């Protein structure tokens, strides 16, 4: 099979292919990041969402594997933003996306001011959707707070920056978040974060499967694919053309990558399936995607990106 051209552009950065790791997946420590740098068919590296101060995260067990996906309540464990900012300024094997999060608007602004003042010229991603910090709501479900925060960010931030969004479930909410985002020069949206505050029940033990927050946690993996595709599609239909989309959620096969791109994704990231299968998943997904493209006669991703047909 001849290799297809899978080159992808995002925020004027060229990636060798469409695949990324989802933030939080094998990207917290120096060793994990080195593994990603050495992973074939992983086109870029997304770092674990970084906060002002290092965090150990929530109590274990905080991740649970399911036949149909996963539930997590990690609670933002990370080494603190200076570690990741330092890392992305050194990494040269592939392009990076520096993910940042905050426990308050002030925290976020402090971190982003340092990113602005650093030598890092790559892409930053502001996580507005962590579902797992007790007492902290997911910012992007509050459209007024999201607008206010972005106004404060763009008062000083001039580097490429996108946002990580939670899943939305109502068409009016797609309209509302798109109306906010279209007012700012963001490079991309990454959609979706895990489906927040699901609850998995072990019937035999009559108990929950993760410890933090009484068992409530973010859902990922195959079970969220239709939600993820809906969010990619609905946002592509509403966002300015200049705003790219990273599709995240539910990818277990090359067909799922194809579906994300068909819905309008520029790039696609993989989370739960990396944990199930290991970093070799990116080779398998790429082979499967190429086989589908060959069968359909597509030469590049732009041949079918966003071309989903309605009945
Ligand atoms: O660390 C987490 O608990 C976590 C984060 Br920050 C996030 O954005 N999404 C998620 O599923 N878990």
From TrEMBL:
The record, for InterPro entries, names:
Aldolase_TIM, DHO_dehydrogenase, DHOD_1A, Dihydro_DH_chainA_dom2, Dihydroorotate_DH_1_2, Dihydroorotate_DH_cat, Dihydroorotate_DH_CS
Please indicate which superkingdom the organism of origin belongs to: Bacteria
Reaction catalyzed: (S)-dihydroorotate + fumarate = orotate + succinate
The coiled-coil segments of this chain are none
**Name of the protein this chain belongs to:** dihydroorotate oxidase (fumarate)
Report the enzyme's class at the first EC level.
Answer: oxidoreductase
Keywords per UniProt: Cytoplasm, Flavoprotein, FMN, Oxidoreductase, Pyrimidine biosynthesis
GO molecular function annotation: dihydroorotate dehydrogenase (fumarate) activity
Q: Does the keyword ATP-binding apply?
A: no
Family membership, please give it: Belongs to the dihydroorotate dehydrogenase family. Type 1 subfamily.
Q: Which cofactor does it need?
A: FMN
CDD domains attached to this UniProt entry: DHOD_1A_like
| Localization per record | Cytoplasm
According to UniProt, this protein's pathway is: Pyrimidine metabolism; UMP biosynthesis via de novo pathway
Source species: Fructobacillus papyrifericola
**Entry annotated with the keyword RNA-binding:** no
Q: What is its EC number?
A: 1.3.98.1
Q: Where is the Dihydroorotate dehydrogenase catalytic domain?
A: 6-293
Q: What is the annotated quaternary arrangement, including any partners?
A: Homodimer.
Q: What is its main location?
A: cytoplasm
């Amino acid at each position: 099979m001849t290799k297809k051209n899978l080159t992808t552009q995002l925020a004027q950065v060229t990636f060798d292919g469409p695949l990324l790791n989802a933030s939080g997946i094998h990207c917290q420590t120096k060793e994990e990041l080195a593994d990603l740098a050495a992973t074939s068919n992983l086109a870029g590296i997304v770092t674990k969402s970084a906060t002002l101060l290092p965090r150990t995260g929530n109590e274990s067990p905080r991740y649970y594997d399911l036949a149909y996906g996963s539930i997590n309540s990690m609670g933002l464990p990370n080494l603190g933003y200076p570690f990741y900012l330092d890392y992305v300024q050194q990494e040269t094997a592939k392009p990076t996306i520096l993910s940042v999060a905050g426990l308050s608007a002030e925290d976020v602004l402090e971190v982003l001011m340092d990113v602005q003042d650093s030598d890092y010229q790559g892409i930053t991603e502001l996580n507005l959707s962590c579902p797992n910090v007790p007492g902290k709501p997911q910012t992007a479900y509050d459209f007024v707070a999201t607008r206010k925060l972005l106004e404060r960010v763009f008062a000083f931030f001039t580097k490429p920056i996108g946002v990580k969004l939670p899943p939305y479930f109502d068409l009016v909410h797609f309209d509302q978040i798109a109306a906010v985002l279209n007012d700012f020069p963001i490079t991309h949206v990454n959609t979706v974060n895990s489906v927040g505050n699901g609850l998995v029940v072990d019937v035999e033990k009559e108990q929950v499967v993760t410890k933090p927050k009484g068992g409530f946690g973010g859902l990922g993996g195959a079970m969220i694919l239709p939600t993820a595709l809906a969010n990619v599609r609905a946002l592509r239909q509403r966002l300015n053309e200049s705003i790219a989309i990273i599709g995240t959620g539910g990818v277990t096969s090359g067909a799922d990558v194809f579906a994300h791109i068909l819905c309008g994704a520029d790039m696609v990231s993989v989370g739960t399936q990396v944990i199930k299968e290991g970093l070799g998943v990116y080779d398998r997904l790429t082979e499967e995607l190429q086989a589908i493209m060959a069968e359909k006669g597509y030469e590049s991703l732009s041949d079918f990106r966003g071309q989903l047909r309605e009945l």
